TrEMBL record:
InterPro entries documented for this protein: Asteroid, PIN-like_dom_sf
SUPFAM superfamilies tied to this protein: PIN domain-like
This protein's name: XPG N-terminal domain-containing protein
Signal peptide: none
Family: Belongs to the asteroid family.
Top-level lineage group: Eukaryota
């Protein structure tokens, strides 16, 4: 479902982006926005059934850079 307007708001206010390492805490991630961002920045061709190779690659890169 996502938070309406969240992506545009965060992109406009670039000062939100900072590396932060957290431990022993809970973190809430807007999964819909994350999926949207990763899919459309992967350069995957989603027409005619989709080209999911680039999308899979960007998911694996994200997964490994996050230490999952």
């Amino acid at each position: 479902m996502g938070v309406p307007g969240l992506t545009a708001f965060v992109e406009e206010c670039g000062s939100f982006f900072a590396e932060l390492r957290v431990r022993d805490t809970k973190l809430v991630i807007d999964g819909s926005s994350l999926y949207y961002h990763l899919f459309f920045t992967s350069a995957a061709d989603f027409r005619r059934g989709g080209d999911y190779g680039p999308f899979h690659h960007i998911l694996m890169v994200f997964k490994h850079t996050q230490g999952w």
